[in-house]
Structure formats: C-alpha cells, structure tokens
Design a protein that fits this description.
Strands 1-2 form a two-stranded antiparallel sheet. The model has no long low-confidence stretch (mean pLDDT 80). By secondary structure, the protein is an alpha+beta fold. The protein has 3 helices and 2 strands; from the N terminus they run H-E-E-H-H. The chain has one domain.
C-alpha cells in the first residue's frame, strides 16, 4: 500500500466514525448578495430521513448568519468561515448532543 493510499484509508476511517458536514454558499461580493444557498450536505454525520427538520433549521440559522455577515458590506472569507463554524457548532451540539 502506497503512502497516498494509507493516508486515504486513515481519512476514511476518521469519516466513518464522525461523518462530514459541508456548507455551500454562493455570494456576489460586488453587490453583497446571497445568490445561492446555504445548502447543507452531510455524509455519515446524521441519518437524513430522521434529521430533515434538524437540517432545515440549520439552513435557517445559516441564512440568518449570512445576512448578518452581508450587512457588514465587506467579504472576509476567514471571518465567514469562523462565523459559520461557530454558529453551526453551537447548533449541532445542542441539536444532536454531538460536537461538530
């Protein structure tokens, strides 16, 4: 097994135990508009059929977070990442009792 394959297997083992949650957002920074999203994609994080309401509430929280960030009239990608992770971490921890 090559070093690359070994690393890939390690990542797969990690993801199989904790899953992944991805947030997709499209923003027009020149006009300060949210064009698309937020969309939440999960793999192995929660069972989607049982968690559709949780994911819907997460999207609403993210949309509110996006509008607060857009109101600042500047796009700072690091700040956006930090705010998204912060708001989702608190939400997920309280919603499913498991850290993000």
């Amino acid at each position: 097994m090559s070093e690359y394959e070994s690393k890939a297997m390690e990542e797969r083992k990690l993801l199989s135990g904790s899953g992944i949650l991805i947030v997709n957002v499209v923003v027009d920074s020149s006009q300060n508009l949210l064009l698309c999203g937020p969309d939440v994609v999960t793999r192995g994080f929660v069972y989607i059929r049982e968690s559709s309401e949780l994911l819907h509430r997460a999207k609403l929280l993210l949309r509110r977070t996006m509008y607060v960030l857009l109101s600042k009239n500047h796009l700072d990608v690091r700040e956006w990442e930090q705010q998204i992770v912060h708001s989702l971490s608190k939400f997920v921890d309280s919603g499913i009792g498991r850290p993000l």
